[in-house]
Each structure stands twice: as structure tokens, then as C-alpha cells.
Amino acid sequence: MVVIGLTGGIGSGKSFVLELLHKRYDIPVFESDKVAKDLMMPPNDIYKDVVLEFGESILEDVDETSIDRPVEKPIDREKLRQIVMNDEKSLARLNAIVHPGVKKYFKDIIASDNYSVIIIESAILLQDGYDEICDEIWYVRADRVTRRNRIMKDRGYTYEKANSFMDNQPDDDYYMEHADRVINNNHFKELELLILEVDSVIKSFKEKYPFII
Q1: Is 77 within a domain?
Q2: Does residue 205 contact residue 213 with C-beta atoms inside 8 Å?
Q3: Which of 64, 133, 156, 184 is most deeply buried (CB count within 10 A of its CB)?
């Protein structure tokens, strides 16, 4: 199995590139945020650890009068986000609980050897040491202006908030230093140009792994 780790800064368009790689080349993709979301659902141990750490105030409001038997309330991700968004210590505590579980999930998939190639995605792929379990690192690259415009449009962030999020992530040189392949995604609306970019990366990948895709 060939394991591709895909990463990039906020607003680089990782999710869109992942969708393109999956639909166009039928490559199985696994996104860390989605895995983390699943692991934080009851009755998983990570769910219990997060609630124990941050308290039941982070749980969703559920009308228990309409429920026949007690249920474990899901975590309200927006409530949790408000706690960790501007508190580095709280964010570090959350990451210390969730990230090892996500990494174990990916390792279990790799150990299963059920695929010829997979892509695992994480914004902190390099910072969390995922390069140790990946055969290649692919970097989705976009310039700062393009990223900021995407963040403001897609997430409704202010100019200042978008800049703040980008400033808290590694710079372009950091990603370029570690990347085996780069997908340039400055194409805000030109899907055809992005497809050409991805096709070029896949072509070079197949030259190294001719029997994978």
C-alpha cells in the first residue's frame, strides 16, 4: 500500500482537491477532521475523555422529556470550538486527547492493507509526525491573497480573523521543504486549470508507482 499524506494551510483548498482526487482517480481518501468528529461521538472513549476534560457544558441541548430512556448527549462542536478557539492551553488539551486516536485510526487502516493506495489528509500532518507513516507528502499550495479570499468567502471571517488564522500556521517554506509533490491551487474559479494541475501530479506519481492507479 502506498500512503499519500496531503496537507496545506487554511484556505488552500485541500477538501476540494481531495474530492477531485477521489472522484477522478477513485483514490480512497480519509480526512482527519471527519475521523475526529466520528471519534468524538458517544460511546467512544475519546468522547468520554473530552467530556471529562471540558465538562458537560459542551454537550448539545437535548429535550430529554421526549426520550424514553437516558442517552449520551453528543458534543456540541460549536460550544467546544468557542472554548479552544482563543485559548492555546485548552486547544492543546483537546489535541492531546483527540490526535492520538486519529493517528491510531490511520495506522489501523494502513495495517489492514486493504488498498493499493490511500490519501490521508490533515492540516497538521507534518506537525503531528504523520510523515513517518506516509510514503509521500503532497502539499496543496495557494498564495496568501487567494487563501484569505477563500476563508472570508467560505467561512464568513473578517479580514483580520482570516489573517490571524493564517499567521498561526507554518509558512509556505515549511511545507515546501517537506513536500514530495506540490498541487498549486490558486485557481479560484478555473476548475479546468486545477484539473490540469492534479493530472500532472498524478502522471508523475504513476511514473514512480506504475501499477497503483
Answers
A1: yes
A2: yes
A3: 184
